[in-house]
Design a protein that fits this description.
single chain, alpha+beta, HIT family, subunit A, 3-stranded mixed beta sheet, 6 helices, 15 strands, 25% helix, globular
C-alpha cells in the first residue's frame, strides 16, 4: 500500500510507492564512464592559462597559476552571476528585478583528470572541504551576498559538462526558496519547542536505526524519512552547527572519510550513478541560527520528474528509505 509521508524539515508531502519496491538493479540509468577524454582539458596541469587566475590553491613550491598544485579554485569562465557591479534593485509594477550580482567558482579537486571523488584519497577530499570552507568565509565578507551554494554535479545526467573531477560554489544576493523553506520551518519549530528540529531528527533516527546508513562520533548518514528520490542520502553533523564554514579540522577530517565511504556505498550499490551533492548551510550574513543545522544531501539520478511532480510539487519515490538504508548498509565499507 503506498504511503503519503510529510517531510518535517520542508513541510513537503512525498508519495512512497512501497507496493512496488525497487531494488538497486531495477533502475534504468546511464553509469558514469571512467575513461580519459580525447579533448584537451582546461582543468589539467599545464593548462592553467585556460582558466581565469586562481582564487585559492593547495600547492608546494610552484608559483601561482603554474603546475604543481593538488587543488585549485578558479572563477568560472562562464559564470551565471558576476562579482562586478551594483545590485540596483528596482520594481516594475508587481515585478522585481536586480542586477545579476554574485560569484561563481570552480573547485578543481585533483590534477588527475580521470579520478572520480570516490577514487580520491581522503586527504584530497578533505582539501575540497577546506576549499569550500575557506571560500565561503571569504565570500561572506561581501555584504551584497546572502547565500553560498556549494555543490557537485557528477556525470552528464546530473549536469556535469566536464569530466575532470570538480565542484562548484555559487554565491547569491538572495536566499534560495528551498533553503528559505527549511529555515522557516526550523524557526517555527525552534520558537515552539526551543529545540533544533534537525537535532531532534538525529536523535530519533539514531534510536530507530532503520534509516541509518553510517554513524561516526561526529556524523550520521541517513536515508530521510520522506525521501523525495530513491537512495536520497543525508549527512548530518551530530553536534549542532548552523554554518558549514564554521567547521573545524576534526570535523572536516572525519567528514572526508564519511563522504568517501557514503559515495562508495552508493557507487557499489548503484553501479557508479550520476549524482548531485548539495551543501545546505545557513545564510552568510546570519550570525546566529540556533534553529538551523547544516547538512549535505546526495541525490543519485535514478528517476525523472514528470507532469505529476511538476504540477503538484509532490515527489513519487518507488524505493522506501528503509529499504535504501538496508541496501547501503549491506554494501559494507563502513
Amino acid at each position: 500500500m503506498p504511503e503519503l509521508r510529510k517531510d518535517p524539515i520542508s513541510d513537503r508531502w512525498v508519495i512512497i510507492a512501497n507496493d512496488r519496491v525497487r531494488r538497486p538493479g531495477d533502475f534504468v540509468r546511464q553509469s558514469v564512464p571512467n575513461v580519459p577524454s580525447e579533448h584537451p582539458c582546461p582543468f589539467c596541469p599545464g593548462n592553467e592559462d585556460k582558466t581565469p587566475p586562481e582564487l585559492l590553491a593547495h600547492r608546494s613550491g610552484s608559483g601561482a597559476n603554474q603546475p604543481g598544485w593538488s587543488l585549485r579554485v578558479v572563477p568560472s569562465k562562464y559564470p551565471v552571476l558576476r562579482v562586478e557591479g551594483d545590485l540596483e534593485r528596482e520594481g516594475d509594477g508587481l515585478f522585481d528585478r536586480m542586477e545579476g550580482i554574485g560569484a561563481h567558482e570552480i573547485v578543481i579537486e585533483s590534477p588527475e583528470h580521470a579520478l572520480s571523488m570516490t577514487e580520491l584519497a581522503e586527504s584530497s577530499i578533505e582539501q575540497v572541504l577546506w576549499a569550500f570552507r575557506d571560500r565561503a568565509r571569504d565570500l561572506r565578507n561581501d555584504r551584497r551576498l546572502r547565500y553560498v551554494m556549494m555543490f557537485k554535479n557528477y556525470g552528464e545526467a546530473a549536469g556535469a559538462h566536464l569530466e575532470h573531477s570538480h565542484s562548484q560554489l555559487i554565491a547569491l544576493p538572495v536566499v534560495p526558496k528551498r533553503v528559505q523553506e527549511e529555515l522557516d520551518v526550523a524557526k517555527r519549530y525552534y520558537d515552539f519547542k526551543e529545540r533544533c528540529i534537525f537535532c531532534d531528527m538525529i536523535r530519533q533516527e539514531m534510536k530507530a536505526g532503520v534509516r541509518v546508513v553510517t554513524e561516526t562520533d561526529q556524523f550520521l548518514v541517513v536515508e530521510p524519512y520522506a525521501a523525495r528520490f530513491p537512495f536520497e542520502t543525508w549527512i548530518l553533523p551530530k553536534k549542532h552547527q548552523s554554518h558549514f564554514e564554521e567547521s573545524g579540522a576534526p570535523q572536516l577530517n572525519n567528514l572526508a572519510w564519511v563522504l568517501k565511504t557514503t559515495l562508495r556505498k552508493l557507487e557499489r550499490s548503484l553501479e557508479r550513478p550520476p549524482f548531485n551533492l548539495l551543501v545546505h548551510t545557513a545564510p552568510l550574513q546570519d550570525t546566529s541560527c540556533p534553529h538551523y543545522h547544516w547538512h549535505i544531501e546526495i541525490i543519485p539520478k535514478l528517476t525523472r520528474m514528470a507532469g505529476f511532480e511538476m504540477g503538484t510539487g509532490f515527489y513519487i519515490n518507488p524505493t522506501p528509505p528503509e529499504e535504501s538504508a538496508r541496501f547501503l548498509r549491506d554494501a559494507g565499507l563502513g
